[in-house]
Amino acid sequence: MSVATESTSTFESLNPATGEVVAEHPVQDEKAVGEAVERAREAAEWWQALGWKERRVRLLNFKGSLTRNLNRMAELIHEETGKPVQDAQLETIMAITHLDWAAKNAQKVLGPRSVFPGMVAINQKCVLEYQSLGVVGVIGPWNYPIFTPMGSIAYALAAGNAVVFKPSEFTPGVGVLLAELFAAVVPERPVLQTVTGLGATGGALASHPGINKIAFTGSTRTAKKVMAACAENLTPIVAECGGKDACIVDADADLDAAADAALWGAMSNAGQTCIGVERIYVVDSAYDAFLSKLTDKAKDLRPGFDREAAYGPITMPGQMDIIERHIKDALDQGATAVVGGAESVRKPYVEPVVLTGVPDDSSAVCEETFGPTITVHKVKDLEEALEKTNKTNYGLAGTIFSGNKARAMDVARRMRSGMTSINAFAAFAQVAALPFGGVGESGFGRIHGADGLREFTRPKAITRQRFAVPMNLTSFSRTEKEMARILQMVNMLHAKHYKR
Ligand code: NDP
């Protein structure tokens, strides 16, 4: 359910392509957020008490409801973000896949299991289980307004928590609809609520003492503010932030496939993708052929709001200035625009821009651009490509195209990122079983997969003594002889040298 508000103020969500008002939503103030958290606390206890099987059924029904409303959701995402309807459908399908996986795997990953106690504690029965935290606050971005928050919402709910979701002010309707669909299958308690508003609403959620964890997705700058607010109550946080991801193209790569994937990675969703390709490093001998394929394809792309458009407008008006600055900065420093140029920035659209000869220290290479622009660099070999890829404070994801499996795996392992996709773009995002998250300025903690489920729990260790051992070492009745015997045993077990 979305929260009924007593607040007097409202804000409008706008269609970024047309400027038309999509809907008006309440600005939930600190009091309204507090009330939502209080309701969630009670709902969390009820949800937790339902048990694994009942929660699984409810979440699978939530999935069914979302699937039946897929087109309605996609149209709303299209209107609020401006992205093509098909991209919005694809995003919703990915969200559905994650919801399905989280619902079906929660008990297996988190439920009680026996652990071997070891020789010293052989008389103990040991149980490990992962318990829900209580109330999880989810703060989401606008660029993938259902896929991204669902990576936290589905996993937090499946782990037995209640969720209070604050969507971006640019995509509040998606959050409201999501909570409505959930309430239709779980009408008893407000287990998933959406609070709408601006940054301050997110701030109120992060600083509320009743929140047991914050799952934040957004910019690194805001993540730091959210962490500071959370520090007040020692509230833990998982932070999914921005990136400056690279695509590496090896000399023996399938260049058609590489150009196709890199272009999609760079330009789809108008380049507003946290794991989007922002830099391409191509090994010398493949550079000319690759660039020619990439530019041929890029020239065909047209932004717009119609059904045939390749991608939509820039969703957040403030981003236009950043994109323009990065292009101008690169050109001022001697770069060449092989597709588009400074004139490609035409509010609210940015036409495709492909830049070459961009200095490594320019903002187009160092900062997250979040637009349909790409810098292409010639490197002498994979080592130089990797070195340049890793020369960023971000570390979210990356792509490698290579004809050599072993070489690609080696580079993937050494890439400083949370995820790497070989010979495809961002395949890991579609695999619900794999964890998603970054390193460095791209954040910490993981959503998706088993790690994503555990992220919203606390491990609980329980031991039960099955029988008393003859030697009780943790008793004041312990004798010297018993201690000597145990020391002898430890020596036998652990003192030896191991040979290779
Ligand atoms: P922002 O950081 O601007 O906002 C993210 C969320 O935080 C929004 O809901 C926003 O609300 C809220 N917020 C703003 N100020 C505060 C505050 N002081 N306290 C609490 N919450 C606050 O990011 P964007 O929405 O612009 O998203 C784009 C960024 O997200 C990019 O950097 C992108 O790379 C990253 N991203 C990362 C992903 C990942 O998984 N790693 C996935 C998708 C995006 P409001 O909108 O109302 O201001």
UniProtKB/TrEMBL annotation:
Keywords: Oxidoreductase. The active site is at E240, C274. Residues 6-462 form the Aldehyde dehydrogenase domain. GO terms for molecular function: oxidoreductase activity, acting on the aldehyde or oxo group of donors, NAD or NADP as acceptor. The keyword Oxidoreductase applies. Residues 1-16 have a biased composition (Polar residues). Residues 1-23 are annotated as: Disordered. InterPro entries: Ald_DH/histidinol_DH (IPR016161), Ald_DH_C (IPR016163), Ald_DH_CS_GLU (IPR029510), Ald_DH_N (IPR016162), Aldehyde_DH_dom (IPR015590), Aldehyde_DH_NAD(P) (IPR012394). GO terms for biological process: aldehyde metabolic process. The keyword Nucleotide-binding does not apply. Transmembrane segments: none annotated. Belongs to the aldehyde dehydrogenase family. This is Aldehyde dehydrogenase.
